[in-house]
Amino acid sequence: MATDHIDVTYVANLARLELTQDETTTFQRQIEDILGYIEKLNELDTENVEPTDHVARVYDRVREDIAKPSIDRDDFLNIAPDTINDQLRVPKVIEEM
Amino acid sequence: MSLSSQTITQLRAKLTAGEITAVEIIDSLEQSIKEKDGAIGGYINPASYDFDAAREAAKSADLSLPLGGIPIAIKDNINVKGEPCSCASKFLYDSYVSPYDATVITKLKAAGAIPLGRLNLDEFAMGSTTDNSAVQRTNNPHDYDHVPGGSSGGSAAVVAADTAIASLGSDTGGSIRQPASHCGVVGLKPSYGRVSRYGLVAFASSLDQVGPLTKSVEDAALMLNVLSGSDTMDSTSLEVEVPDFTANLDAGVAGMKIGIPTEYFAAGIDPAVREVVDKAIDQLKAAGAEIVEISLPHTEYAVATYYIIAPAEASSNLSRFDGIRYGNRSSQADNLIDTYKKSRSEGFGSEVKRRIILGTYALSSGYDHKYYDKAQRVRTLILKDFTDAFEKVDAIVSPVCPTAAPKHGENSDDPLKEYLADICTIAANLAGIPGISVPAGTISNSAGNKLPVGLQILGPQLGEEVILQVAKVCESF
Which of B65, B269, B368, B429 is the most buried (most CB within 10 A)? Predict the structure, then answer.
């Protein structure tokens, strides 16, 4: 069965995952198996079928814009991995030139 | 009979008659959890539970409310303010404490219920055995060598073992119905949009629904009354009337047309499971239902469709676990990108990584048309199968799963084989229709233990009343 050759390492990087050599080998085989099975969908002609993204078909529902108390700040900060002065501390984002 | 082994309905009658107190229910649960859960592993960290706080809540419970004084155990992917919510993932375990209540929890509390205990699951609800939990193994109470099913394996096991009165689970592709079937309890997946998803940790947003696992059909109806309703915090929750689901429970099936989909009885179904299901169908006929053979012609494409759509949505939803705001942050990284990669890679288990990669691929530039768009179109055909079928019949009856609960580790190296066992449950999620699993019988395994087999009843969108009526009849067999 013709399956696109997925490059698991490349896709993992897109998903911000870092795989071990063992994981790469196992996932490569398993995901190729799954993609091979998924080829089955090509048996169906769906040229004139509308896609269903959602069965609820509810769009752009908005609630009243009323100010009300939000979740307590301390409850958020208490579960953060690293904080400073009541703010989240994150690793350096901008590299030095 | 201990209080922990009784139904909500039985306990409510005794509470309101003043025969028992809500505190005694907590006492009974505490005792049964301490005695039995060690061997089953349905609860995560039960030794840490504050039973005294639960007793305080029980003392002040308003017994005039529909679930007044009833403790409900919660799947560990639903937020309860002040409690851990690990999703059975190393990423959140030991570090995350919910800063808010999910809407279903707000509703349970408003109905007088007491959320008590956190239930094991497959990591982020991805799996059908609960063996994908990074926290612990959960055993099927009927035979510890077997899985409880999944992903709501803890939710089903504790109800079956009488270490809970009832529980909440979530169902993205069968994750309430299949473990309910494997453990011999009632499990209801509501129609998509019937119940708010706010505060349920998102796996596949167009498929996820929260629902109850209970010891009786009446309890499921009672809980659905409380859980249902439109919510301003979930724009996909439907603005529709919520009927009293307990009102017509005893209407029976006389004159009802019940469809049997040939495709759900195809090759691969264990003959012993088939026998149990066939017997239930005969009994429905004897109870006055007209049994009609129907076809859901695109059934064979449901698994392939699901395993594009669900991982695609998951890959997007799980991008929030980046190590910045909560959960695991790797100590091995020295820049932002590495922080994302290492925090996620340390925190996620194999099944989660596999699905994120599959979903990312299905959405990636150049392949999104071939996979994601194609799957959405086939989803339309699957939806149409059901629309057509429900023009002819009132409800559809089938097995929940082609086999009874497998042993631990049986398909651990072959995810595709495990995915294919979802054949009877996933189409309902793709179509957004309600489904219920009700115990139908048992089959004996080689160890001489009896493993439960459930019957699945599917209804049209928002047709919960019908499937509850059918389930109520099946319960009496």
Answer: B429
> Is residue B477 less than 8 Å (CB to CB) from chain A?
no
- The mean pLDDT value for B247-265 works out to 97
Domain containing residue A37: 8-43
Does A82 sit within 8 Å of B303, measured CB to CB?
Answer: no
Query: Whole-prediction pTM value?
Result: 0.97
pLDDT tens for B117-150 read 999 999 999 999 999 999 999 999 999 999 999 9
Structure-token pair, residue B360: 């990312």
Buried b or exposed e, range A45-56, using 16+ CB within 10 angstroms: ebeebeebebbb
Q: How far apart are CA B172 and CA A16, in angstroms?
A: 24
A51 lies in a domain?
no
pLDDT confidence of residue B468: 98
Which CATH number covers residue B197? 3.90.1300.10
Instruction: Given the residues B28, B128, B175, B181, select the one marked as catalytic.
Output: B175
- Residue B407: active-site member: no
Domain containing B167: what range? 1-477
pLDDT value of position A53: 86
The number of distinct structural domains making up chain B is 1
Which residues of chain A have a CB within 8 Å of the CB of B348? 17
Q: How many domains does chain A have?
A: 1
Q: What is the pLDDT of residues B102-113, one digit of tens each?
A: 999 999 999 999
Q: Identify whether A21 is part of a domain.
A: yes
Neighbours of A77 (CB within 10 A): 14
Q: Give residue A3's pLDDT band: very low, low, confident or very high (50, 70, 90).
A: low
Edge-to-edge order in the sheet of strand B209-214? B114-119, B71-75, B167-171, B209-214, B186-189, B435-444, B450-458, B395-399, B257-261, B290-294
In a domain, A14, yes or no: yes
Contact B380 A23 (CB under 8 A): no
Whole-number average pLDDT of chain B = 97
Q: Tell me, yes or no, if B175 is annotated catalytic.
A: yes
pLDDT of residue A2: 45
Q: Which of residues 312-371 of B touch A (CB under 8 A)?
A: 315, 319, 322-329, 333-342, 344-345, 348, 350, 353-354, 356-358, 360-361, 364, 367, 370-371
CB-CB contact of B372 with B363 (8 Å): yes
State the DSSP H helix or E strand holding residue A88, giving kind and residue range, or none if neither.
strand A87-88
- Closest by CA to B73, choosing from B27, B110, B26, B40, is B26
Q: Is B75 an active-site residue?
A: yes
Give domain status of residue A36, yes or no.
yes
